[in-house]
């Protein structure tokens, strides 16, 4: 009960600056009453209760579940048996990578912020961008980023090597991708790390770093969100590049003249004398 009251109080304090800015601009700068004030107040109450319940659910379910899954997948009883004092190879943690990929893809597909952005992108583009395909492209990038982050924790690879390599790839793709997809790709990398995805990624990273021998939750447990933001940018631009390449092939096939085979109607066969 005390925990629930603490979350309610914290949520209210977190919302107060937002409400102060909105109503301050409305009444002091714009100097007009808020349209449909009653409906907006009811919506704000629902937002407050929804956020509080969501945070309470994170504390009681998602964070503990992430910790339990990481502990179970890295326990010596679950991993392959080793002879003597042989150190474990990074490939022994393949179930960790599979779980990271699956949880990254599933949480991204269900991310409300991504759903909203993909629907807006499909509407604004006039159907050029398929909202579901965009969500799948982002989910694949997110899943790969979380899997790579899990591999980094297991192996102890410095984070900056992976971040620098990913940014170089993003720069190269930015120079070669269709112009219309670039802003959307960068926005897609941001909206993926929102209400559902971040808590699960954080719980997985911290728990995994605490379960792997020789890893520090402070030094190794963080950084997974950075990779989770970068790789959706890469996959969305790759999706646009593949789509553009396919359109060029179709256009070239339609514009190319038919090939003479010698057997078309009215043509004389090649082997005729």
List keywords for this structure.
mainly alpha, 273 residues
Structure overview:
- By secondary structure, the protein is an all-alpha fold.
- The chain is built from ten helices and no strands.
- 73% of the residues lie in helices and 0% in strands.
- The N and C termini lie far apart (99 Å).
Task: Report the sheet-strand fraction.
Answer: under 5%
What is the CA-atom radius of gyration, in angstroms? 26 Å
Shape: flat
Number of domains: 2
Structural class: mainly alpha
Low-confidence stretches: none
Helix content bin: over 70%
Q: How many beta-strand runs?
A: 0
Main beta sheet: none
Instruction: Give the CA-CA distance, first to last residue.
Output: 99 Å
Q: What's the rounded overall pLDDT mean? A: 84
Treating each run of at least 4 consecutive H or I residues as one helix, how many helices?
10
Order of helices and strands: HHHHHHHHHH
In short:
The protein has 273 residues and is mostly helical.
Layout of helices and strands:
Blueprint: H1 2-30, H2 37-73, H3 94-109, H4 112-124, H5 131-155, H6 159-176, H7 181-191, H8 197-211, H9 217-220, H10 224-255
Helix pairs in contact: 1-2, 2-8, 3-5, 3-8, 4-5, 5-8, 5-10, 6-10, 7-10
């Amino acid at each position: 009960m005390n925990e629930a009251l603490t979350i309610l109080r914290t949520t209210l304090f977190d919302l107060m600056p937002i409400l102060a800015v909105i109503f301050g601009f409305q009444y002091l700068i714009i100097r007009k009453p808020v349209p449909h004030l009653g409906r907006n107040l009811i919506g704000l109450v629902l937002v407050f209760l929804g956020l509080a319940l969501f945070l309470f659910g994170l504390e009681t379910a998602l964070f503990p579940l992430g910790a339990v899954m990481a502990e179970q997948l890295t326990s010596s009883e679950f991993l392959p048996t080793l002879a003597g004092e042989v150190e474990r190879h990074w490939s022994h943690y393949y179930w960790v990578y599979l779980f990271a990929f699956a949880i990254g893809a599933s949480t991204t597909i269900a991310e409300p912020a991504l759903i909203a952005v993909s629907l807006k992108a499909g509407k604004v583009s006039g159907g050029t961008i398929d909202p579901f395909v965009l969500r799948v492209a982002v989910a694949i990038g997110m899943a790969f980023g979380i899997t790579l982050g899990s591999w980094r924790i297991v192996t102890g690879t410095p984070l900056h090597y992976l971040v620098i390599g990913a940014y170089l790839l993003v720069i190269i793709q930015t120079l070669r991708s269709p112009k219309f997809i670039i802003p959307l790709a960068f926005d897609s990398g941001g909206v993926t790390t929102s209400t559902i995805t971040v808590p699960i990624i954080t719980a997985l990273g911290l728990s995994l770093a605490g379960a792997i021998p020789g890893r520090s939750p402070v030094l190794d447990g963080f950084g997974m969100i950075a990779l989770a933001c970068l790789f959706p940018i890469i996959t969305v631009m790759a999706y646009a590049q593949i789509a553009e390449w396919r359109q060029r092939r179709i256009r070239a096939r339609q514009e190319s003249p038919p090939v003479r085979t010698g057997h078309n109607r009215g043509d004389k066969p090649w082997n005729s004398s």
